[in-house]
């Protein structure tokens, strides 16, 4: 063992500093100090318990030092020496905040002046490491709370409640909430990259410049980024999140980006749906980047008064179920039940119970894709009632006799929507894709059963569906919204009227995008 205090002392200090640079553990520092001084060493934390010690440290001695440790920890003493039996014990407190941690050295004889100085330096390093750990913990806690707030703001915006979003951020409103219009950018990236990206582009207020970056709770490889659409005359001084996201895609082969059209802030939910469809196209494109170019959904083109009357009549049985059940079902017609559970922080069993309650009230099976498409259409139509322009239509529907859905789908606006929607698939060059997607709906979106119906492999079915996504500008394999538009278009044009084959062994079909995405 090299004697302490010889010319190698400067090297000892350098080695202690290396513990700081590489964020060494208290046990590593104590072991090093024990080797350098020949003493047994322990670190007693702020709670008065031994947090780390060298091998062989006599714990009975620590138990006998309770009174001295309390005096040091409480600030009445800075350091003390005592003898316990045949052992020399040295205690020293560190830090300015009480209770203070205490370094204890136990040796056969009193430490030399140099060894005591080295112990003091090591104790200072241990205190520094402890404070750094506490600071890291505080930073992680702040980041976690900031992420929760960003998620809450995004949730309010997706629900169209800008006022609620502002209330949640009183005193520190993000620039996004002052924007008139917003684009949603949906970034596909490895799950491990999401937290790194949100931290990298975090501003001091806990937001991301004129936008937000929020981990999608349903799909672990997606980052939801609503970005304010800036006035071109405002200058380019602010953080341009859209440009950053595009650069990330260009620099990382595993990334893809879907971008919505500009929407009013209260229509962030619609912008998100467009970004979902755009991302499906982007993932099937060489550049891995796509802006939404699709046609509007059927809900926006149906005759408003008649459609609302049908929707209200269709949903009337849900008035007998609790409001949380309707909220769950609104999501469950689009996302898988496990995804809804993650989004709402519920168990999958609870989500299933809500869905069964709705099924019983409506007399339907939500495992059927056509049933989900119909219910989603009705829910989406009633959601449009919040538009002031629809106030008169909402009042008039009370007296209007609700037409059957089939009659609505035979109207000229529905036909004018469906024919162009399906035209890319009906092109002679893509007839095989049309046959596949039609069979896929007939098979209740089950890829294996679709493969059997059309005589293809399951991999080929998935490849056809991905190609159809690009041609239709609709997501078919992640959420249900694009699938529902496909169901409606096939209904309007007279296709897809056949009942699909029953589920295997009499079991109720349960939709999951994983069946075709895996």
Characterise the protein shown here.
This protein has 22 helices and 11 strands. 51% of the residues lie in helices and 10% in strands. Strands 6, 7, 8, 9, 10 and 11 form a 6-stranded mixed beta sheet that branches. A 5-stranded antiparallel beta sheet has the order 2-1-5-4-3. The protein has helices at 9-21, 26-37, 59-64, 66-73, 113-158, 162-168, 191-200, 241-251, 268-283, 304-315, 323-332, 337-344, 348-362, 369-383, 391-396, 405-409, 412-426, 431-442, 447-454, 458-472, 481-492, 514-517; strands at residues 40-44, 50-53, 79-84, 87-93, 102-107, 181-188, 214-215, 222-228, 256-259, 263-264, 289-291. Helix 18 crosses helix 19 (447-454). It has 518 residues and is α+β, with helices and mostly antiparallel strands. The longest helix has 46 residues, at 113-158. The model is unreliable at 1-8, 233-238 and 498-518 (pLDDT under 50). It is elongated, with a radius of gyration of 32 Å.
Feature tags:
518 residues, alpha+beta, six-stranded mixed β-sheet, five-stranded antiparallel β-sheet, 11 strands, 51% helix
Quaternary structure of the protein: single chain
Cα-atom radius of gyration: 32 Å
Structural class: alpha+beta
- Number of DSSP strand runs: 11
Give the N-terminus to C-terminus distance in angstroms: 61 Å
